[in-house]
Amino acid sequence: MSIPAFGLGTFRLQGQVVIDSVSTGLELGYRVIDTAQIYENEAEVGQAIAASGIARDELFITSKIWVANFAKDRLIDSLKESLNKLQTDYLDLTLIHWPSPEDQVPVEEFMGALLQAKQLGLTRQIGVSNFTVDLMQQAIAAIGAENIATNQIELHPYLQNRKVVEFAQSQGIRITSYMTLAYGEVLKDPLIQQIADRLQATPAQVTLAWAMQLGYAVIPSSTKRANLQGNLQACALTLSDADMALIAGLDRGQRLTSPKGIAPQWD
Length: 267
Known about the structure:
By secondary structure, the chain is an alpha/beta fold. The protein contains ten helices and eight strands. It has a single domain, classed as TIM Barrel. The chain has an eight-stranded parallel beta sheet.
């Protein structure tokens, strides 16, 4: 089992907007869809998938358990509700979305419940999201690194999160980068624009290719067909070592997502 390198994110997309985005993505060839309980769009994502007629075994569907559902007597039931909305019998990957605020539910408890969900066949793989090195260590102590497929974290040229990446990779845990385009901020970066011009690519393609070349999975989202199509072409782009080194130099620790009351003490 592994995490596909490229998929479609659905954060902030709801109603007909997410139906259209997922439908267009599937039509263009996307086969990996990432959603979450808190996005409140699982039913619409499920609707778009069902309408596509694509066989379930050709798809890779990820969702994330919200913090309100971490207790062991709630997690599996909430996952079953997600499956019902997504119109599927199983997920390919289920993540813990954020650490439990103020450790209300111990890491050991929710990771144990998530592992049980895997053993029950409700999900093929499990993992975490927004976990620091310390939280990953706790998760590993609870269920073993071999059971943690990925840590999905904010990661883009302006926040390269190297400490978390290095630890995860040392444990065989794949990194999934979310907000790889930094809400579009990096697309305006002169250096990335310069590389894109030279390679006859878009700044988005360059940024996504950079992340994939480092071994990260990416899940960019878009509501525009042209962008969905363009992003997909990042899979065919290769950057030189010199270009990779230049982008590595853009890191400035600029974090864009850190919800109050939920975010951990970042590394």
